């Protein structure tokens, strides 16, 4: 019975560590995507005439 309990605890810890690694990797990927999107938006020229194309809604 003690061995099964120890195995269960070790499996839970392993799963928690795996989940933490996945979250860390996801955060890094999202930071990279955010940086790339910011660079892309900053490289686009602004509209020089009219009212259309002067603002980009980045909230959505």
Automatic annotation (TrEMBL):
Any Pfam family hit: YjfB_motility
InterPro entries cross-referenced by the UniProt entry: YjfB_motility (IPR025906)
Protein's name according to its UniProt entry: Motility protein
Phylogenetic lineage: Bacteria, Bacillati, Actinomycetota, Actinomycetes, Micrococcales
């Amino acid at each position: 019975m003690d061995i099964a309990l120890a195995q269960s605890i070790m499996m839970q810890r392993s799963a928690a560590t795996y989940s933490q690694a996945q979250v860390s990797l996801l955060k890094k990927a999202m930071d990279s995507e955010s940086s790339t999107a910011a660079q892309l938006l900053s490289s686009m020229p602004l509209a020089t005439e009219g009212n259309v194309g002067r603002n980009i809604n980045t909230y959505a």
